Amino acid sequence: MRTFVHGAAVWDVACPQRRSRVAGVTMAGFRVRDLDALRMVPHPAVTLLLDFGAGSPVLDYAAGRQQRGSVVAGPGLGSGGAVWARGENVECVQVRLSPLIARAVLGVSPADLDGAVVALDDLWGRETSRIRQQLGEVSSWEERFALTDALLARRHEAGSPLDPEVAWAWNRIVGSRGLARVDGLATEVGWSRKRLWSRFRSQIGLPPKRAAKLVRFDHAAHRLVAGEGPAQVAVEVGYADQSHLHRDVMEFTGATPATVAGEPFLVVDDIAWPSPETPGEPSRL
Asked: What is the pTM of this model?
């Protein structure tokens, strides 16, 4: 376990020593004594939060709603800067699920979440209480990761896969870091545009153009965190100009590129979600 310190934020962060047995699953463990107003920055994965500590994470919405405890949210959680996390004595396992496997693991399509944060109890019922109890009873993070992985593998095996054409289109978008010609994807898979858009939206949770936009934003945001200037990022990530990058960052986060570059949610990624890929190669979500 490593300690992450960024300004007033102090978190203990644990990473699994072994990869998940399910491709498309990544995990990290967090212990935070005082989590104060953390902006949730959109990410192109389904977020699964398994809470088991004495405290409880709270997600606050700009509209005034709240959600506590174990939750799940589709790709793009926090768009527009609309969701903030806080809490005391928070202990949790956070899972990032590729949209390619999310439907099988969750038992519902990400599209059925309708862009909202949903209590995991509402999806999994008593299974949520069982995993919460099990996570709290063991003493090590590796045991917690193993329990979580076993649960996800069991659910994934029992679930149904996506259409191969949809999976192919998603991998094209991710592999190009959001720069694939989305209008040409339907032709490449031999479907009508309407059919691909409908199947992609229903199975991934976003329409193809929005998915590509989110993947490109995520790549740009992490380059900003790495210290690259907005002008350089705009050119190299595929934006028309720096103003275009600024608009996209504001749309997804409600903040400027300079502010996003220092967001703890992103800065902690190098510790919590170390990339196994060769530097410069896109990750597969």
From this structure: 0.93
